[in-house]
Amino acid sequence: TSFARRLEKFSLRGTPHVKLRNKIKRAREAGIVACEVGRDIASDERIFGRIREVSEAWLRGKEKKELDFMIGELGGPHDTERRTFVVIDAADRLIGFITYVPVWGRHPGYLHDLTRRLPDAPPGAMELCNLFAIERFVREGGSVLFIGEHTDVFGTGTHINEAAIFLNGLVPAKLGDAYRAYLLNNQLAQAADVLR
């Protein structure tokens, strides 16, 4: 089943999220901090070099080559649409990142686009990164988070269909034809059901 998550009711309260809250707490206690590139830290070649290093380490750990047409993009210092959130450990190492792209239309929000982390990133680091981003989106008035079908950012075991952003035919041309074709291969009807 595919769905999108409405952000106005987002909460990590309650028994179902105990493990997730504990992982985030341990990450914070270990000195890990989350921040947004271009807002909390500079958006420059140095930071994107560090992001590329994390991506390359992640790919080496998976023993796979990058399939650019199948996934999101890292972006760069001058990418004003893509939002990149990073986690940095107590030794000032960038240990992971998540990118989001905007979704416009009747259900505006963000698409959880790309997640990468160092193989030795501690548990809770990426959950902290995602929580930081979601809390910022909620404060800014973003109403829906669309999550890739292989992503479980809420710790529920449920995976969400990326194609939800096509509900209103609203994918900016600058995202690229290959990326849009990838999204179109998903099942639109399932995503539409969620937002009814």
Defining traits:
196 residues; six-stranded mixed β-sheet
Order of helices and strands: EHEHEEEHEHH
Strand content: 15-25%
Report how far apart the termini are.
Answer: 15 Å
Question: What class do helices, strands and sheet pairing give?
Answer: alpha+beta
**Biggest β-sheet description:** 6 strands, mixed
Poorly predicted spans:
150-196
Could you please describe the fold and organization of this structure?
By secondary structure, the protein is of the alpha+beta class. It has helices at 18-29, 45-62, 125-140, 177-184, 188-194, and strands at 5-6, 33-36, 83-88, 94-103, 109-117, 144-147. A 6-stranded mixed beta sheet has the order 1-6-5-4-3-2. The longest helix is centred in the first third of the chain and has 18 residues, at 45-62. It is globular. 34% of the residues are buried. Residues 150-196 have low confidence and may be disordered.
